[in-house]
Amino acid sequence: MTTAANPVRFSHLMAFGRSAAHGHHARTRTDEDQTYPLERGSALHSLVFGTHLVLAYPGPVRRGKEYETFCERNPGAEILTASDYELARGMAESVSRSPLAAPYLKGVCEDTLFFRWNGMDCRSTPDVRGAGFLTELKSTATADPRRFLWDARKRCYHAQLRFQEHGVRAAGKGAVRDHYIVSVESKPPFPVVVWHVEPEALVEADKLLTIWSETLKNSEASNAFPGYSDCVLPLVWPASDEELEYGEAA
Fold first, then answer.
1. Is 77 helix (H, G, I), strand (E, B) or coil?
2. Are the CB atoms for 183 and 104 separated by under 8 Å?
3. What is the pTM (predicted TM-score) of this model?
């Protein structure tokens, strides 16, 4: 199958949700920032789905000639520090032992789809494409339902699953009726919580995807990628603190 040179990914769309400048950076960047949490999350997927070999590096730091030799002896492996490997393994074992999560982890795992959606060439890789459902496996600082709910919304997991649904349908891989998230806490005792994405959340997801995709198309068509604002903004407090959005941007 012939694919576009730079198909649109969900991460690109979400970046355009911040600003066109962020979106353009996401679409054109060649480097990939791999923080320790991201590495652990990637290793979790590999351990649960069996997609890549995951190894712990026995040395104190991952650099130097000894580390380079270790990498050469294990081509294609995901190599973590010993401490991060233990955390990734603990999460994977907890997920694998969960009877609640088990039904939603059965299906085609990490199969990349290339498709057309909303006039764009796109690609997506659902964690699990099951019989009528999609599942995303997420490691998280806290799986506490009182907190993860808002974290999931901030990170737009509902929009990610909806975007994947568009890919499944466009690629002729069947219908999607349900969307699930299996969340696992990244520290002991690694509790697992399973979520069903409700219709109200999917309505919001549709709105986000529409806004982001139109911003992307308009920006690339005009070759204009402004940041947050092109004018001087007034610094004045809203009448209520509830109108302020605190915390790091998604």
1. coil
2. no
3. 0.89
Could you say which residues of the chain have pLDDT below 70? 1-3, 31-36, 240-250
Residue 156 backbone zone (phi > 0: left; psi -120 to 50: alpha; other: beta): left
Q: Which residues pair with 128 in a beta bridge?
A: 109, 135
Euclidean distance between the first and the last CA atom of the chain, given in angstroms as a whole number = 34
Cis peptide before 234 (omega within 30 of 0): no
Q: What 3-state class would DSSP assign to 135?
A: strand
Q: Can you give the residue ranges of every domain in the chain?
A: 10-224
> Most distant CA pair in the chain: distance in Å?
61
The three state secondary structure string of 95-134 is HHHCCCCHHHHCCEECCCEEEEECCEEEEECCCEECCCEE
List pLDDT tens digits, range 111-169: 999 999 999 999 999 999 999 999 999 999 999 999 999 999 999 999 999 999 999 99
Percent of the chain exceeding pLDDT 70 equals: 92
Written out in words, the top-level CATH class of the domain with range 10-224 is: alpha beta
Q: Which amino acid is at 159?
A: A
**Alpha carbon distance 215, 221 (integer Å):** 10
Report which secondary-structure segment, H or E, holds 137: strand 133-140
